[in-house]
Structure formats: structure tokens, C-alpha cells
Design goal:
alpha/beta, six-stranded parallel beta sheet, 661 residues, calcium (chains A, B), Transketo_C/PFOR_II (chains A, B), 20 strands, Rossmann fold, five-stranded parallel beta sheet, homodimer, 44% helix, metal ion binding (chains A, B)
């Protein structure tokens, strides 16, 4: 019979050996949290290594993601498709075991972690998803959605501001199936944390409305198990289990100090650790009885089989709901979606309304959302400005559940929670703030792009058109910087039709996130033929052509109106120009040479117009073209005054075009 | 004798009338916090309206900056150079009274606020500055630095994650001269906060080690005064005064609801408010006795005169210290700085070391810092990775004071605290994290640029050269996006000499911030002649020319080595090319046409090489040139493997150059 200590030591030794082999990595956390992992993974975690995508599995998030070898060791030992050779490839190119856990690289990785604080925030999203999905689908006697979310986190996560945003919300929402284990080892990279981290963390979490279990010995598996029992017994609040640990436990000369955090132990200390732990086995050799002690294959198969039987009973009782559940969890759109969406766009085109695109966005949500219960909306305390509520919106945290999240003034938390909602499955989250405050959330947008997941980030008040609130709130460089995030599709539509199509594209996208950028102010409706409406999905297309055009005007969003007026003015001066609308540069760039050349003929000089930073447009206009843009901060004044003051006038565009002919 | 109510009502009425006149703005907060303002501004704030830059004034920060009319009213009424006509120009172009308080627009504005949570964080920096400066300059019997920092903040600031980072540090640092007034009105934009903000805020702040005064009636001036007395009596902790208020107090039909937050009251409600308050005066008419009741001109002059007398006594006792204090507060470099700095750079050039530029950065700090006690360093828990410590570093929060701040894992908090340290005066802060996590801090970098203040942001591990930690930690688009912030100078030096010069430029800059981007890995020293060393300050210059060059290679940082090797290889194939080093694109862009044309001759095709997002380089290479860059995420692997895998090879550069000839 293997002991708990042997189970934990297997994790310790695999971790220190893999870091040593890679000559890079973080042994301290895996060695320090190994006993907690035994308590959770051996005795509580509901999972099936043979099916990492089982819908009702518990979710486990390693928020202190630098300790990735802990998770890789656990996945390997419990029976996931992650071999010992995979562990030997730790931190090597195209391995399943990169330096931080990367979603999509190894089975059982629920989210990419490493950027501190975001893992716990993703987990809050996952726990919210479980709660809301359960309210939608569970029926008396049929709890088909009933799983827990477990998080490991360290001091770094707790220092990060986003932990405040996420954990405050988790408390407000009463996410009682969320349990976090705090690795309270008193050490961060700069040394003993007492010089920079003196929070009374238990008290802080009690202030958020959490159930807090203090002073648990993180190396006493029984103590941790007792705490987990208490967490499970709590039905109104999330639980924080405060585990006192020794970082690098098992490395006799280095444990408890910051040098064990982020560097290989070295051959001498590794030998000493083997002796200290009484571990006689060679690197990457795990005795069969320890594998057997860790394996979750049988228990996992049994757990999933039990759920499948219950789901079959649910299907017998509620066949339509069961189908819908599978559609939602599978991330599939309704079967008649394409025709439905085309009809929505056609109706909006037929109406021909002049609206602020944020209002056009709301109308698009109003049209699409009744068809898509997976749309889970929200705003960071700007619902009435972002216009993200629709007539069917209901607070997701109400007693009966719903489809709208009031995130409060927490942009970064919102975005990382949206990532967690999406990763859980069953939801297509959208959430909004002012475009300027995309900056507060920026790294969570990047994480969505890196994970190839597809939440929808809605940003309104997209330029100096915001007006009087002034330069702190007026985007200048924000659209340009969003366009630089790899795998992010950024849309800046110019009217109701482009707004609806950008929503449709974002809804249909399933390999990366979208940002939808909308105006505060009214923008005129632009008539288009059916071919042009279809061409919006290509990211850039000819909106108004001219015979024998001598130049191309490229514009987006609110500057389309200006481009069209300048086209008319130039025509009056005998200078025909083409107007191209380019709502999404990344989508346009993917269209292939022929489409690109047909929209932007090589021979014609180009002028881009956008009330934002000009530099990104050089990619399209080159050195011989020109950009009517804004390379400085805005000012506080009515929008109309600002556009005129900063050169967004027909006269200036006309003069600029003439300068490049 | 005017009553306190009349004083408060003057603020209320000016605020509601100015918002009405602008037809835009936020009346709710000024009307709700007017009584608190009477307590603080009438009875406690140490300031001199005739000299808003008096070194020992108290600092007042309106963290809920949307309530700007509160501050403008107070500045006007107490006697600053801000006229009633300025108030009438609220939110109009080029007025002193923009929508949010903008640093540099009106006297008495200590920092630009609006982006929530950053004001309180700036204030933490100001309070830290006061504490550290006092330890440097005060002498027994000569407390020439002895002032307080006062902050107004609302629910929004408290929900933002950055408030956690800042207030945790303020508690750890024991900033007892910092007092924050929480406008606890229970309302945010989406409505009653109980659906999304249920923190026990007093308990939360106690967990941070703050002195918390609960349940103060924010409309009872005596109660607020009593709380302020208690705050002043506390000498070990910052104080949070929790003020229950009614948002929009005085607007009889709208007060207490969210509709009063961010829109004009309207003529009807304004008339009702005048009646309700018993305020018979026309808009923008303030009776003389109320002006007299508010005026701080006499008391302010007296307070400053008292300090000046004490400073003169200090000067008599410590003449050199007094001179140094004035130099520091004036933001002036030492008189012999230019020669000193030139010597430092020359010595570094003479050494010719091959080092990681993060190590070159540390050497530059080591060389410059002994001359500059105003350099106040720090890192977000990555001192040993960022290499921001030097031999003279001492914890600023030690008993005797110092010059280094251990910020913990708090990137956004660090950056906004640095802004506060700079705004206070007396310090040139630098602070560091990994380049990736510049994203967590991004809006604080922008705020520094907007305010035209000059802290130094140090970002290391600047590309896939970071290696095994993988894509969550490998910058791709980050340098490109930093370059897009208006008024930000971003430097990515290629060796020890460029690193030292970029530090020198950042130290000397006084009209905007700098970001210094350094490599993890070693980069070879590049020999230069004196003219080339001088040319580094021009942002871009010819590093290795070639006779009859047929193309220009532009590179930065770690890719300079590759450019030089490609130049050699191309020369071997009979293709002479010029190599341009461009450590700072924004500095280069400011050099004027002649310099730019001399470095990048119009006729030559160009290839840019940078291990980062290519799009920004189109500005220099146009449509006919090429970029060897990276438009996708990185991977976890050793750095050398990644550079080769992703095309940063001589062969690829050579082929790319040939493709554009």
C-alpha cells in the first residue's frame, strides 16, 4: 500500500527532475503544494482522465501557473494522455508540456495560466458558468450540472489587483462550489513577503463574503481533507483554504527560501532531496504501485458512467432540453442559424436607420439574442452607456438565473471571467466597457487570443467622438493596439448593417476572440447592394466606386461618412476616387491576394481616414500614401468641435488626397 | 456670518449650473460630497491658492475625477487663479476646466483623474514621496517636509483592482499622513450597488492595516471634522473615513438615484434645487460673503510664510541640504550632469562588454545613481530578474528611508504610484517588470504620457528571447503598442552603450515618460565612433554603412546582431547594404526631415528586423520594403530554438533583402 507521502513525493521528484532536465522552470511550488494535491486529486476531484472534456467534470485551475510541473505530474500520474516522455520534453518546442500550462496543449489543462491573478479569475467565471448553466438545465431530480471548481493560488495572485475584482464578485455571487487553496509559503521572488505583502488575507476574504478556513497545515493531508469537507458543507459562500506550506518542501538545503522558486535545484540538491525524501528511483521512473495509487482511470470512468446514466434519464424526461444541452456544451450554433442571421441582417439593412453604432449594436443583440440563450451579456457598470442590455436580459445571479452579468467597475475581472465562462462551455459571453478601459483589461484579451477562445469584447465610445469627458476617456491609439494582438479580430463598423454583420461574425467565430468597437454618436446609414452586404464579412470592400478612380480612400466607422463626403467633393473637382470600408483589418488580411488586389489596386495611391493613431494604416497606404489620423491626445470639448479642430474635415481630406496624386 | 451649509451649497450650485451650461457632466458627486469638502478645505487643507506649487502644501486628489466640478468650484472659491468665466467654460475646448481634472490645465490640480482607481494610487505615491523625502531632508527641529495627502474616492475606485494593490501597499508602508474619504452613496452607474458591490469595505481596509472610521454622516460637517481629527491623531496607519452620503444631495427629486450621477439635472430640477436649498442667486453669481467665507488667500499666504521662515532657518543650519532640496523639488539635474553623463557613457563604451541589456541597464543605474539621489527605483517582485537593484539601493520603507521600493506583484499599482511619486516632486522614479506585464500597467503609462510627466518604466525579457516560460510571457506586440502611446518615448537598445544612452535620455527627459526595453539574453557589444555614440540620442542612426548600398536594414535591440551578420553575408554575395540602428522610433521621428533622409535615403528599399509585431515598421519600409518580424504568438522552448524556428536567421534576412531589391 503506497503512502500519501509517496504519492506526494512522486509529484515532487517528477517536478524537480523535469525542471532540472529542462534547465529551466519552477520547482518550489510543486514541491510545496504536493500534499495539498494529494488531498484534492486523490480524494475529491471529480474527473475522468479518459475524457478530459466530460461536461460535468470538476474544473481545476492552477492560478500560480509557473508551478506547471505540479499539474503535468498529476495529469500523468492519474492517467491522462500525457506520457513520461511528454514530461521529459518539459519546456521544449512543440511539446505538450510548455513552461506554463497552455490550454489546448495537453489534455486536462482547463485554462492557460501564468499571468498572475487571471487563473483565479477564470475560475470565478467557470464557477459562475456552472451555477447559471445548472439553473437553466437542471430539473427536479435531475442535477445534470453539478460540479465544483478548485483553484490553487499563491501570494502573487493575491497581490494582483484582479484578485480583488474576481474574489469580490465571487463573494457577492455566493459561488459556493468554488474552493481556492492559498499556498501561504511567505515567499515571493524578491524574498520574504513581509516587506511588501502584509494583508490579513483571511480577513480580506471574509470582507468579500467568503468562507475562510485559517491555519491549515498544507503538509498534513488529513488537515487539508478536513478543510475540504468544510468547504463542501458550505452552501452559500465560496471557500478559501489557507494552507501554510514550505516552498520547495523536500529540498533539504533550499526549501523555505526564494532560491527554490524559479530555478533548477542543481544536481547536488536533487541528490540531497532524494536522500531526504527516501526516494531511491531514477529520474522519470515511477514504481508501478505509485502509479496504481494515483490512477483515476477506473474511478473516473465510473464517475462519468454514473453521470451518463443520469443524463440518459434526463434525456428520457426532457428530450429537447437534453439536445439543447449538448448543443450548448458542444459550442454549436442552432441548425437554422445561417438563414436566421441572414434574415436579421437583411431586415436591418431594409430599415436603413441612422443610429449611433452602440445603439445599432444593441439592436443587433436584440435581434440575435432570442435565438442564442448561450449569449451571456454584461458590462463593467456601463450598461446604459454601452447599451448591452436587451429586452430579454435578466440578472444571471438572480434566484432563477439569467443571461446578464453586472460586473461592477471591474474591466480586467470582467474580461478574465468571460474567458472562464467560455472555457467552461455552454456560453458565448459578451461584455462591455468604454474603449479606453480596454486597457485595464488588455492582458485578458490577449489571453483569449492566445487560447483561441471566442468571447466577444464590446467597446463603445470609440474616439474623440466621445466629446466632453476629455482625453482620459478619448481613445486615440486603442483601436490600433487592439489590431496588433495576434488572433484578435477587431471590428469598427460604420453603420447599422456593418454593426449587425460584425456581431454575426463574432458570434460565429470559434477560433479566437472578437472586439467590437462602437461609436457614441450617430452615424448615417449607408445603402449597399446584396453583394456589398455579403462583402462586409471580408473585412474590407469597395463601398462606393468611381470610374477611372485616381486614388483610394480607406476608412472605418465614423470616418466613412467623411470619406463619402470627400469623394463627392473630389468628384466635383474632377478627381474620381474609390471609397473602401475596412471594418476589420485582420479579416481583410486573411482574404488572399486576389481579393486584396481587387479592393486596393496596386497602382492607386491611398489615403486612410480614421480618428485614431495613424501608424497602423501605413501597412495599407505605404510611404507614398497618407493618413488622416490622430497621433496626439484629445481634448475635452463637444465632439463636433474636436473633429473639426483635429482635421477631420472634407477640406483636409480633399487636400490630403491631392497631395498624394 | 456665512453658514457651513451656504459654503457647501455654493459648491453644489456651481456644480449643477456648470454641468447644465455644458449640457454634459456629473453633478451627483459634487453635490453629495460638498459637506465633506467644507470640512476638509475650510478647516484642514494646508494650501496657498497664490502658490499652487508650494513644496510643503498638502496634496488633494479627487480620485472620483468625474466629479471635477467639485474641485473646480473649490479652487475658484478658495482663491486660485480660476475665474468664474473659467467655470462657465466647463468642458469647452482649451478651457482650464475640462471634463475631468487634467494636470497642467488649472492651478491646484495635482494629478489627472478619471480612470477609476488611479487617483487613490497616485495619492499613495504622493504620501510615500512625502515620507521618503522627509527622511532624506528633515533634521531635528527642522521638519521642512511635513504635509498630508487627502483623497476623495467613490465606489468605482474601490471596485477597481488597482485600489487593492495601492491600499495594500499603503497599509504595509504605514502611510499615516494619507487620509481617504469614501463617498459611500450606494449608487453606481448601473444603479444600486448591492447587486455587484457587497464588500465589507471597512473590514477590507482593516485587513490592509488601515485605520478605519466607520459610519460617518457625510452631510454632518462636525462629524467629518471629528473623523479628520482622529485621522490626524493616528501616526502609524493611513485612515479611511467612511462617509455615508446622498448622491446629488440638494436635487430634491433626483438625489439618491443613479440618474443624478452623470447627466445635467435639467432646468426644472435645477429650479427645484434652488428652492430646496434656499439659494436665490443666479447661475455663477456667488455673494461676496460666501467668497469671503471660502477664501484661503490670507490663511494660505500665512501658512506658506511660516514655512518659508522655517525653511530659511533650515537653510542657515544646513545650506547644502537646502540647496539640494530646492534642486530636487525643482526637478533640476546636478549642475555638472552633462559632463558626468558623457563620461559614464564613454567609460561604458571603452569597456566594450557583451552583456544582456538588462545587465547593461543595471550597470547604467550603478553608474548614474550615485549622482542622482532622486532616482527612486523598484520592481514588481522581479528585482533579481529586472536587475533594478544597484549597490546603493536601500528599502525606501526602512526606518531610515531609502531609494528602492519593493512593490510586490502589483504592476498597475507600481506604475500609478510612480506617477504619484513624480507628481509630488523631488523624485525621478523608475520601476520594472517583465515587458509582457506592461499590459497590466498600461493605462498608467498612458496617464504619465498624457500628464507630460517623466517617470521611467523599465521592462525586461523583451521578446521570444525570454525562452522557456513560453507565450504567456513572450512579448510579441508589446513594443509596437508602447510606441503608439502619444508622448511616450520607447527605447529598445542593442548593447551596453545604447542602454546607457537610453537611460541618460530617460533621466534627462522632463516632458513625458520613457519606457526602456531590455533583453534577457546576452547581446554583443558594437564598436562605434564618437559621432555614432552621439547619434544614439537621435533615436535612429547609421550603425554600419556600405559604399553604394542597395538597401537599408533597420533593426533594434537583439536583432542588431542579426542585421550585422546579414550585412556581412550580403556583402559576400556582392550586395552592399547599410545597417541602421533605431533604438527609439519616436525620438527618430522628431529629428526633422534632413536627419531622417540622411539615415533612410528615399531611393533605397528597406527591410526592418525586429522580434516583434511587424506592422509598426511599415511606417519606415512602406509597401515595397519588408519586415522580418513576428505576427503570431511565441512558444515555450530555448530562445535560440525559437529565433531559428521563427525566421530570425541570416539566411532568411538575406533572402528577404533580395526579395525587395
Amino acid at each position: 500500500m503506497v503512502t500519501r507521502k509517496e504519492l506526494a513525493d512522486a509529484v515532487r521528484v517528477l517536478s524537480m527532475d523535469a525542471v532540472q532536465q529542462a534547465n529551466s522552470g519552477h520547482p518550489g511550488m510543486p514541491m510545496g503544494m504536493a500534499d495539498i494535491a494529494v488531498a484534492l486529486w486523490k480524494h475529491h476531484l471529480k474527473h475522468n482522465p479518459a475524457n478530459p472534456k466530460w461536461a460535468d467534470r470538476d474544473r481545476f485551475v492552477l492560478s500560480n501557473g509557473h508551478g506547471s510541473m505540479l499539474l503535468y505530474s498529476l495529469l500523468h500520474l492519474t492517467g491522462y494522455d500525457l506520457s513520461i516522455d511528454d514530461l521529459k520534453q518539459f519546456r521544449q518546442l512543440h511539446s505538450k508540456t510548455p513552461g506554463h500550462p497552455e490550454y489546448g496543449y495537453a489534455p486536462g489543462i482547463e485554462t492557460t495560466t501564468g499571468p498572475l491573478g487571471q487563473g483565479i479569475t477564470n475560475a470565478v467565471g467557470m464557477a459562475l458558468a456552472e451555477k447559471v448553466l445548472g439553473k437553466s438545465f437542471n430539473r427536479p431530480g435531475h442535477d445534470i450540472v453539478d460540479h465544483r471548481t478548485w483553484v490553487f493560488l499563491g501570494d502573487g495572485c493575491l497581490m494582483e489587483g484582479i484578485s480583488h475584482e474576481a474574489c469580490s464578485l465571487a463573494g457577492t455571487w455566493g459561488l459556493s462550489k468554488l474552493t481556492a487553496f492559498w499556498d501561504d509559503n511567505g515567499i515571493s521572488i524578491d524574498g520574504d513577503v513581509e516587506g511588501w505583502f502584509t494583508d490579513d488575507t483571511p480577513k480580506r476574504f471574509e470582507a468579500y463574503g467568503w468562507h475562510v478556513i485559517r491555519n491549515v497545515d498544507g503538509h498534513d493531508v488529513d488537515a487539508v481533507l478536513k478543510a475540504i469537507d468544510a468547504a463542501r458543507a458550505e452552501t452559500g459562500k465560496p471557500t478559501l483554504i489557507c494552507c501554510k506550506t514550505v516552498i520547495g518542501m523536500g529540498a533539504p538545503n533550499k526549501q523555505g527560501g526564494h532560491n527554490v522558486h524559479g530555478a533548477p535545484l542543481g544536481a547536488t540538491e536533487i541528490a540531497a532531496a532524494r536522500e531526504f525524501l527516501g526516494w531511491p528511483h531514477a529520474p522519470f521512473e515511477i514504481p508501478a504501485d505509485i502509479y496504481a495509487g494515483w490512477s483515476a482511470r477506473d474511478s473516473g470512468n465510473a464517475a462519468e458512467a454514473d453521470w451518463t446514466a443520469r443524463f440518459n434519464a434526463y434525456r428520457a424526461a426532457y428530450p429537447a432540453l437534453a439536445d439543447e444541452f449538448e448543443r450548448r456544451i458542444g459550442g454549436k450554433l442552432p441548425a437554422d442559424w445561417a438563414a436566421f442571421a441572414a434574415d436579421v441582417v437583411a431586415q436591418i439593412a431594409a430599415k436603413g436607420e441612422t443610429l449611433a453604432t452602440r445603439k445599432a449594436s444593441q439592436n443587433a443583440i436584440e435581434a440575435f439574442a432570442p435565438k442564442l440563450p448561450e449569449l451571456l451579456g454584461g458590462s463593467a457598470d456601463l450598461a446604459s452607456s454601452n447599451l448591452t442590455l436587451w429586452s430579454g436580459s435578466k440578472d444571471a445571479n438572480s434566484a432563477e438565473g439569467g443571461n446578464y452579468v453586472y460586473y461592477g467597475v471591474r474591466e480586467f475581472g470582467m474580461a478574465a471571467i468571460m474567458n472562464g465562462l467560455y472555457l467552461h462551455g455552454g456560453f458565448k459571453p459578451y461584455g462591455a466597457t468604454f474603449l479606453m478601459f480596454s486597457e485595464y483589461a488588455r492582458n485578458a484579451l490577449r489571453m483569449a487570443a492566445l487560447m483561441k477562445i471566442s468571447p466577444i469584447f464590446v467597446f463603445t465610445h470609440d474616439s474623440i467622438g466621445l466629446g466632453e469627458d476629455g482625453p482620459t476617456h478619448q481613445p486615440v491609439e486603442q483601436v490600433a493596439t487592439l489590431r496588433l494582438i495576434p488572433n484578435m479580430d477587431t471590428w469598427r463598423p460604420c453603420d447599422t448593417v456593418e454593426s449587425a454583420v460584425s456581431w454575426q461574425a463574432a458570434i460565429e467565430r470559434n477560433d479566437g476572440p472578437s472586439t467590437l468597437i462602437f461609436s457614441r454618436q450617430n452615424l448615417p446609414f449607408i445603402p449597399r447592394d446584396a453583394g456589398q452586404v455579403a462583402a462586409i464579412r471580408r473585412g474590407g470592400y469597395v463601398l462606393r466606386d468611381a470610374d477611372n478612380a485616381r486614388a483610394v480612400l480607406i476608412a472605418t466607422g465614423s470616418e466613412i461618412e467623411l470619406a463619402l463626403k470627400a469623394q463627392t467633393a473630389l468628384a466635383g473637382q474632377g478627381i474620381p476616387v474609390r471609397v473602401v470600408s475596412m471594418p476589420s483589418t485582420s479579416v481583410f488580411d486573411r482574404q488572399g491576394k486576389d481579393w486584396i488586389a481587387s479592393v486596393l489596386p496596386k497602382a492607386l495611391p491611398r489615403v486612410a481616414i480614421e480618428a485614431g493613431h495613424p501608424d497602423g494604416w501605413r501597412k495599407y497606404v505605404g510611404l507614398d500614401g497618407a493618413v488622416v489620423g490622430l497621433d496626439h491626445f484629445g481634448e475635452s470639448a463637444p465632439a463636433k468641435v474636436l473633429f473639426e479642430t483635429f482635421g477631420f474635415t472634407v477640406d483636409n481630406v480633399v487636400a490630403t488626397v491631392k497631395s498624394v496624386l
